[in-house]
Design brief:
The chain is of the alpha+beta class and 141 residues long. The chain has 3 helices and 6 strands, in the order H-E-E-E-E-H-E-E-H. A 4-stranded antiparallel sheet has the order 4-1-6-5, with helices on both faces. It has a two-stranded antiparallel ribbon with strand order 2-3. Helix 1 packs across helix 2. 19% of the residues are buried.
C-alpha cells in the first residue's frame, strides 16, 4: 500500500468514525442555446456560456454505498485530493468521464454528511441535505 492510499484509507475511517456517511452527488450544468450552426446535414448548437442567469441545473446522488475500497478507487482514478476539514471531496471528473445527459459541464463530489434519525436510505440522506449540497456545489469552479 502506497502513502497516498494509506492517507485516503485513514481519512475515510476518520470521517466514518466521527459519524459521517459518504454520498456521491453530481451537478449537471446546461448553458442556453442561442443559435445553431449547420455542418453538412448536422445542426450544431451554439451555447451562450456568459448568460449565467439562464443556466439550467440538475442535481442528483448516486444510490450506491461507498465502502472504504470504493472510496479509495474513486479518489485514485479521478486523481482527486481531499482536504482535512472539508465537508466534500471534490472529484476531478474531467479526468475520467465526460458530462452525461448532454450537459455542458459536470461536477461531482463525495459529500460527508451526518445522518439524522429520519435517514433510512441514501435517498433520505440526500433529501435531508439537498440545499446544503447545492450550496457546496456552488463553490466548485
Amino acid at each position: 500500500m502506497d502513502e497516498n492510499e494509506k492517507r485516503l484509507r485513514d481519512h475515510y475511517k476518520h470521517m466514518c468514525n466521527t459519524g459521517f456517511d459518504p454520498l456521491i452527488c453530481v451537478h449537471l450544468e446546461y448553458w442556453p442555446v442561442v443559435d445553431y450552426k449547420k455542418i453538412g446535414e448536422t445542426l450544431i448548437p451554439i451555447f451562450n456560456q456568459e448568460d449565467v442567469k439562464h443556466y439550467r441545473h440538475m442535481y442528483y446522488h448516486i444510490d450506491q454505498v461507498i465502502t472504504e475500497d470504493r472510496y479509495v478507487e474513486v479518489m485514485q482514478k479521478t486523481g482527486s485530493e481531499f482536504t482535512e476539514d472539508s465537508e466534500v471531496d471534490k472529484l476531478e471528473v474531467q479526468n475520467v468521464w465526460v458530462p452525461s445527459q448532454d450537459a455542458n459541464k459536470e461536477h461531482a463530489g463525495i459529500f460527508w454528511l451526518k445522518p439524522t434519525s429520519k435517514c433510512r436510505t441514501l435517498g433520505d440522506l440526500y433529501k435531508t441535505y439537498e440545499a446544503k449540497i447545492k450550496i457546496l456545489f456552488g463553490s466548485f469552479k
